[in-house]
Amino acid sequence: MSGDGMNPAAVAQPVEDIQGDDRWMSQHTRFVQECKDAEPEVLFVGDSMIQLMQQYEVWREVFSPLHALNFGIGGDTTCNVLWRLQNGELQNIRPKVVVLWVGTNNQEHTAEQVAGGILAIAQLLTSRLPKAKIVVLGLLPRGERPNPLRQKNTAVNDFLRSWLPRLGQALLLDVSRHFVNSDGAISPQDMFDFLHLTPTGYRTMAKPLSDLLLQMLEEKPEERRASQV
């Protein structure tokens, strides 16, 4: 899978305004406006998993001090994020790191197609931001008990683990193992609806992510070049 136009999960498109209040486009427009004034070192982009992060203390305590922007919109698929990034959400900003978390809403696509859509976004980011590092967060398990969607998300992560290293500046951070108990169940203490994270769940994923971000932000240019050799 190359992430090209043959893959429906890699076709950029905005969300159709079915409800008639234009909220999705209003959020996109706000993000584009923020690009004109902000100088983020870290850009978070994706679906509700990114968006909701900003509502909890972990954002203010851990990520906001890193000069971070949050461009998350609930319900977004890879197609929607790709469209947003192609239409102004990368203008005028030069983050050192981009954190991408999207894909669990791509219900109509196969695991390979979803991974290809994520790869297409990562390719766009490396093209527009050649000096930035890209951290792709692996899709988390969903549903209280094992189910086909969990298997699909695991397969997406497996494809990404194989494909992302080819881009050179992108890597996968998969924290999914922290959310499944020994009996295969997910706790509502971690995911209140067995999909979206609670404050406790965000704390769990924040530790490895913040450690990685701090390492990337402190890395000198010559160290970065050496790590890519």
Question: Describe it for me?
Answer:
The protein is α/β, with parallel strands linked by helices and 229 residues long. It has 8 helices and 5 strands, in the order αβααβαβαβαβαα. Helix 4 runs parallel beside helix 5 (111-128). Mean pLDDT is 93; it is low at 221-229.
Instruction: Calculate the terminal CA-CA distance, rounded to whole Å.
Output: 25 Å
Write the H/E string, N to C. Answer: HEHHEHEHEHEHH
Helix content: 40-55%
Morphology: globular
Poorly predicted tracts of residues: 221-229
Strand tally, please?
A: 5
Category by helix and strand content = alpha/beta
Average pLDDT works out at 93
| Residues in β-strands, percent | 5-15%
Number of helices: 8
Q: Largest beta sheet: what is the strand line-up?
A: 2-1-3-4-5
Largest sheet: 5 strands, parallel
Q: Roughly how many Å is the radius of gyration?
A: 17 Å
